[in-house]
Amino acid sequence: MESLNISIRYLYNSGFTVQTKNNFLVFDYYKGTVNFGSGHTYVFSSHGHPDHYNKEVFKWQNSERTIKYIFSSDIKFKSANEDVIFISPDEELNVDNIKVKTYGSTDLGVSFLIYVDGITIFHAGDLNWWYWPDDTAEEIEIMEKMFKNEIVKLKGQHIDVAFFPVDPRLEHNYYLGGEYLIKEVSPRFFIPMHFGEKYETTKSFIEKMKNSGTNVVEINQIGQEINL
Question: Which of 5, 52, 153, 172 has the fewest beta carbons closer than 10 A?
Answer without folding.
Answer: 172
